Amino acid sequence: MIDHIGIVVSDFEKSKAFYTSALAAIGYSLIMEFPESVTGTTDVAGFGEPEKPDFWISRGTPGKSSTHAAFRVESRNLVDAFYKAAIEAGGKDNGGPGLRPHYHPNYYGAFIFDPDGNNIEAVCHNEV
After folding, report:
1. Could you give the residue range(s) of every CATH 3.10.180.10 domain in the chain?
2. pLDDT tens profile 70-116
3. Which CATH architecture has domain 66-128?
4. What value, to the nearest 5°, has the Cα angle with vertex 54 and ends 52 and 57?
């Protein structure tokens, strides 16, 4: 199941304002925001229904950055299995399995780049 997806925007503040207004009409709001100092790469903002963002924007150059898609799984073992299988299938490491407590205390994910450079993730939100 898709957990969340992210797109790259050229004007972060303008796009954040746009999506804040446009998505309010369907019950979405800005739920989380992380600066480059936290993510290590760029500013990001997450929109969704309380309390879980599932649509993210990030500062960058559209068409020159990878798309991000995350698949939600029910156990950390499945995150580990995804990462191992993706690497064996030719994916490139973009962050091995582990906790990402800056997102929330139980966020356990693994990130790979697919053959086209897209950032693909498996994530488990459960405690184990």
Report:
1. 1-60, 66-128
2. 989 999 999 999 999 999 988 899 999 999 999 999 999 999 888 77
3. Roll (3.10)
4. 120
